[in-house]
Amino acid sequence: MKNLISLRLKIYLLLSSLVLITLIGGIVMIWYTFRMESVLNLLIEKDVAAFQAAESLEAALVNQKGFVTYYFLDNDPDWLRQLGEYRQIFKERLGEAKLLSDDEPQKKIITAIENEYGSYIELKDRVIAHYKIGEREKGARLHKGVRKLFFKILDLCEEYKNIHRNRMAVAKEKSYNEAINLRLFSITALLVVTFLVVLMGFFLVNSILKPIYRLAIEAGREGKTGSTEDSGNTKDEISVLAKSVRGLLNDIDLTHFELEKSREHLQQAEKMALVGKLAAGMAHSIRNPFTSVKMRLFSLGRSQNLTETQKDDIKVISDEIRHIDTIVQNFLEFSRPPKLKMQKISPSVVVDLAVQLLEHRLKSYDVTVNLVRKQPLPEIDIDPEQLKEVLVNLMVNACEAMVRGGLISIHENEEDDTPIGKAVVLRLSDNGPGIPESVIGKVLEPFFTTKEEGTGLGLSIVDRIIEEHGGRIDIKSKEGEGSIFIITLPVKDRFKGKSA
Q1: Which helix (H) or strand (E) is 214 found in, with range?
Q2: Which residues contact 396 (CB under 8 A, 6 or more apart)?
Q3: Which CATH number applies to 2-201?
Q4: Most Cβ neighbours (<10 Å): which of 13, 67, 274, 479?
């Protein structure tokens, strides 16, 4: 049980580690994606927007310079109108840049651009005023100062762009570093998971699969039945082992059945031992006195002039004494079974002897015997006297069952029987009333009888004699359709130790 718990714990720990590492790796990767997303959002929303605002400032400033130059060339007032529009655009972009500036250097540059642009507009308007009134030389001299302010504002815009360009470069480098960290973490997680998988595979192979494989091989060796597929195939260890376990369970069931059967036999043997003691006592306590009574009755019948009624009474007493003697004899035979005196003889000879012995009795019962024999059965090791007793017992039972006469058929065959092998089979059938299905399984049990004056030992003695010969007796019967007693005896002598 400890090893089983330890095995479970090891598997659970390995699986839990794999799941935990996978979950941590997934969570960290999701977290890194959010971080990279935040970096990119910061880059797009602020730095790119601020960079674009600075470029818009430069474009608006350059366009203003161009519109003034065009006005100086052809004095078209429409250029001044467009100049006003771009001045408004410059102020709007400057306001956007102010909002996007989130540190002191940016705010300082935006403030400088705003101040310089104010000076630039003021000086530019003075130059335009000189040109309007025809003072072109004064306007040209003043325009030199305007140029300086123009380039200064452009430099400030470029400086502002450089700040955000550098910030974008930093954000890019940061996202690159984050990506590298993510790759390193992913590689580490993969290596750890791979190591754990290899470790788990090694553990499963050495602690589970190899023992199962060895068990499967052993089970395959023990379960060989001559089939190549069943005996040599150990590739699917689980299937082989499962099949072996099922076989083991079947063997357990069979063993349990055999144990129950052995227990019943043991109980029966104890009962028979008790019967033996009882029969031995009865033999001395009953048979000897009854023998004396029989002798006295015989002498009394010879010496006295008895009436017919008295003679009938003496005959009834003699018959009853003979019946009691038969009962005692059955007890003795059952409790003290004689040792078999085996000899080579054909069962057909024994059948003929039994039929010949019962010839007069069969006629008295008005029973005909039909013997079906293609050829005499081969000689086998049997006790002819015991087998004759079996046949006589079965035929007498059949005669008593067929009250108004009938037919007894005896079929002789030589067959192959699965548990016994080559065997001779005798089938004794009658057309009597048959055996009720409710009792057919009990008729071979000792002391079971359906006759009013029966001892219930006749068929038990038959069953034991056949069993002593290494054979078996089977019964087939349907109520109202007669009965068939099938005697199966092995051809080969497999029970030499039982012979006398």
Answers
A1: helix 210-222
A2: 358, 361
A3: 1.20.120.1730
A4: 67
> How does 269-306 read in b/e, with b if 16+ C-beta sit within 10 Å?
eeebeebbeebeebbeebeeebeeeeeebeeeeeeeee
Please report the beta strands in 350-492, taking only residues with DSSP state E, as ranges in sequence order. 367-372, 380-382, 406-417, 421-430, 472-477, 483-490
Q: How far apart are CA 107 and CA 242, in angstroms?
A: 81
Section 491-500 average pLDDT = 50
26: enclosing H helix or E strand: helix 2-42
Are 84 and 134 in contact, with CB atoms under 8 Å apart? no
> What are the C-alpha distances in Å from 10 to residues 17, 18, 201, 500?
11, 12, 12, 66
Place of tokens 């004056």: 453
Q: Which residue, 332, 335, 457, 447, is CA-closest to 397?
A: 457
pTM: 0.41
The closest alpha carbon to 471, from 393, 382, 350, 369, belongs to 382
CATH T-level fold of 341-498: Heat Shock Protein 90 (3.30.565)
Q: Largest alpha-carbon pair distance within the chain?
A: 197
The tokens 């079971």 sit on which residue? 448
Q: Do domains 2-201 and 341-498 have the same CATH topology?
A: no
Strands 367-372 and 406-417 come out as parallel
Angle between helices 347-357 and 384-401 (to 10 degrees): 50
Pick the CATH number of 240-336 from 1.10.287, 1.10.10, 3.40.1010, 1.10.3470: 1.10.287
Q: List pLDDT tens digits, range 290-320.
A: 677 777 777 776 666 777 787 777 777 777 7
Listed residue (86, 75, 97) closest to 121, CA to CA: 86
What pLDDT is stored for residue 283 in this prediction? 60
Indicate the residue type of 130: H
